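Lab notebook, bench 4. The sequencing result for the construct came back, and we need a structural model before the next group meeting so we can plan mutations. Quick request posted to the team channel:

Model the 3D structure of this chain.
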Amino acid sequence: MMLNTMAMFPTFVICHRIDLRAYAKARGLEIVQEYIDYASGSKNDRENYLRLFDDVRKRRTDCVFICKVDKFARSIKELITAL
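Done. Here's the predicted structure in token form:
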């Protein structure tokens, strides 16, 4: 985990993490890494956003779960590029 305390997380991040962890657990999937950015989703130079794509390119994961697409990419062009 990147942060020391849950109090540092905005409420929506806590809810998304709970939902995604439950989704993975129900399907017998192992979560190997969580990537959380606090920078604006309108920027594609976010530290953990870039780290996620680096790990995907290096095949360190088989799939990526995203709770809210609008928090991941702010434009259709950026979403298509990411996919």
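The chain is about 45% helix and 0% strand.
Will bring this to the meeting.
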